[in-house]
Each structure stands twice: as C-alpha cells, then as structure tokens.
Amino acid sequence: MKIFVIELYEDDPEKSTGRKMVRFGFAKYTEKPRGIVLNPLSEEVISIDDVEIVNKYGLSVIDSSWNKSDAKFYARFMSRFSRRLPLLFAGNPINYAKPYKLSSLEAVSASLYILNFIDISLKLLSLYKWGKTFYDLNKELLESYRGKHKDEIIEIEKSFLKEEPQQ
C-alpha cells in the first residue's frame, strides 16, 4: 500500500498528521499527486471502484491547513483521479464533529476503510489518542460506505443527510 503526502508546510509541524504518517513509516512525501488524490473539491467520491488504482499507484493526500486553503488552492490539484470523501465527522480536537473537515490522517484512514483496507486504516488511527474518537463518531457511516460503489455511497450519504436534524 503506497500512501503519499503532498506536504505544503502550512501546519504546525508538531500537529501535522501528514508528517506523523511519514515519520512512522506509513507514508512517503511527494511533490506531485500520485494515484488517487484526496481533494475536497472533487465531485467524484472515493469508492471500491478506485481500489485497483490505489493498489497500483497509491493514494495521495494534500497536507494543508483548512484555515489557509480555499477552493482556488484545491483546484490546482484537480485531475481525473481526484476524489472526495463522503460525509464523515472529524474526531480531531481542532475540528471535532465538524462534517467533512478531516485531518490528513483521518482522510487517509477513512479512504482505506472504504476501500476495505481496514487493518491499516485502524493502525493509522492508533497514532493519535483521538483516532478512536474519529472511528467511534463514524463507525456506522464507515461500515455503510465500506466496499460500496460510488453510486451506492452517494445514495447512503444523501439518505444520512436527510435524516440529520438541521441545526
């Protein structure tokens, strides 16, 4: 399993989940996107349909600060291999329970879970105390998305959004 981090050096080095994945040997740095690229602007959702590409070329995450990145920023990384994650809630203390605002580690872990790489997904989450919080918050969703095709994931996401009370 090849995991790549496109490091943009915007986060505090001590808090960068992308750097921690590299430090613990789960990922390598890259300057250019490789394989499936996790991009919150992508219209296409990650799904089991992407497992062959991930197996062959890997999975890339853009490690940047949510506070310093906007739509124009993420547009630079759009390609036919860009994918977004379906609805999930952050478990990290900075964006706790915010929908879609995941750390790099949460995004990679969730992607791997959806692609049926559960063992490595959970090992990644074990790098942080709040990793279990992320899993507990999203267990039902992750299980719903796991191993599903993109159309199925979009339907699950839509049905969950309809069920959620508006705040």
From TrEMBL:
Q: Extract the coiled-coil ranges from the record.
A: none
Question: Keywords for this entry?
Answer: Cytoplasm, Ribosome biogenesis, rRNA processing, S-adenosyl-L-methionine, Transferase
GO MF annotations in UniProt: rRNA small subunit aminocarboxypropyltransferase activity; S-adenosyl-L-methionine binding
Q: Where is this chain's protein located in or outside the cell?
A: Cytoplasm
Q: Which cellular components does GO assign to this protein? A: cytoplasm
- Has the keyword Nucleotide-binding been applied to this entry? no
Per its record, the protein catalyses: an N(1)-methylpseudouridine in rRNA + S-adenosyl-L-methionine = N(1)-methyl-N(3)-[(3S)-3-amino-3-carboxypropyl]pseudouridine in rRNA + S-methyl-5'-thioadenosine + H(+)
Biological processes, Gene Ontology terms: enzyme-directed rRNA pseudouridine synthesis
Q: Which Pfam families match?
A: Ribo_biogen_C
Primary enzyme class: transferase
Q: Does the keyword Cell division apply?
A: no
Residues at which S-adenosyl-L-methionine binds = T17, I62, L85, Y100, S104
Recorded superkingdom: Archaea
Q: Which InterPro entries match?
A: Tsr3-like (IPR022968), Tsr3_C (IPR007177)
What is the E.C. number? 2.5.1.157
Quote the PANTHER family the UniProt record gives: 18S RRNA AMINOCARBOXYPROPYLTRANSFERASE, RIBOSOME BIOGENESIS PROTEIN TSR3 HOMOLOG
What does the function comment of this entry state? Aminocarboxypropyltransferase that catalyzes the aminocarboxypropyl transfer on pseudouridine corresponding to position 914 in M.jannaschii 16S rRNA. It constitutes the last step in biosynthesis of the hypermodified N1-methyl-N3-(3-amino-3-carboxypropyl) pseudouridine (m1acp3-Psi).
Task: Write down the HAMAP family for this protein, in alphabetical order.
Answer: TSR3 (MF_01116)
**Protein known as:** 16S rRNA aminocarboxypropyltransferase
